UniProtKB/TrEMBL annotation:
SUPFAM superfamilies: Metallo-hydrolase/oxidoreductase
Chain ranges of the Metallo-beta-lactamase domain: 7-192
Record's keyword annotation contains tRNA processing: no
Keyword DNA repair: no
Stated name of the protein: UPF0173 metal-dependent hydrolase J2Z40_001957
Length: 226
């Protein structure tokens, strides 16, 4: 399968004849190489309701008749916007036709800001475990470090982990390096950095903190074969 990184927390997976997009923040994402008109996701996985993760989900899903998978409250909100959804909750897994999805904890917020200066709370933010073509990919979403990452890694051997390193809103590089260790991930790719001034980081310094051969910085648009 082909797994590519598209700036901020956007990850695209092409496997089992499907295109799966995670946290499709395209408009307003100064780092991404994607265009809403060009991406045709069959499935969209959303970690939480913040604008830099929910992104262009509604437009993409309506245009492409994509299935959107998210926590139950966020899925319900999206369903009300006319999107085809599948709601889940943390700790639950479901076998879809393209692969298996399980939501994991993430310590973060999930408020969506409206034009009327209101915040709509959209359930528990999550991480995502996607098992597809026999490999398990972990997208941590936005989260601080927590010790149950060890439990996640013990229960689900992780082939590839996408971990936020931006600091301020999520783990910084040191905590993310510790997370990589307790997750026991075979390969780790940093995400959620350099999009905005408060999350400026050098991803190469992060990779140097990891055990030899584990970390890989993916340039925007770069793909790896898994
Ligand atoms: Ni967030
Ligand atoms: Mn974020």
């Amino acid at each position: 399968m082909k797994v590519s990184y598209h700036g901020h927390s956007v990850v695209k997976i092409e496997a089992n004849g499907k295109t799966i997009l995670m946290d499709p923040f395209i408009n307003g994402n100064g780092l991404t190489d994607l265009k809403v008109e060009d991406v045709k996701p069959d499935v969209i996985l959303v970690t939480h309701g913040h604008g830099d993760h929910l992104g262009d989900t509604i437009e993409l899903a309506k245009k492409n008749n994509s299935l959107v998978i998210a926590n139950f409250e966020l899925a319900t909100y999206l369903e009300w916007q006319g999107v085809n959804t599948h709601g889940m909750s943390i700790g639950g897994a479901y076998e879809f036709d393209f692969g298996k999805v399980k939501l994991t904890p993430a310590f973060h917020g999930t408020g969506l800001e409206t034009e009327n200066n209101e915040i709509i709370y959209l359930g528990m933010p999550a991480g995502i475990l996607l098992t597809i073509e026999g490999k398990t990919i972990y997208h941590a979403g936005d989260t601080g470090l927590f010790s149950d990452m060890k439990l996640i890694g013990d229960r689900h051997p992780i082939d590839l982990a996408f971990l936020p390193i931006g600091d301020n809103f999520t783990m910084g590089p040191e905590d993310a390096a510790y997370a990589a260790k307790i997750l026991g991930a075979k390969k780790v790719v940093p995400i959620h950095f350099n999009t905005f001034p408060p999350i400026k980081q050098d991803p190469h310094l992060f990779v140097q903190m990891l055990d030899e051969g584990i970390g890989q910085v993916l340039e925007v648009g770069e793909a790896i074969e898994l």
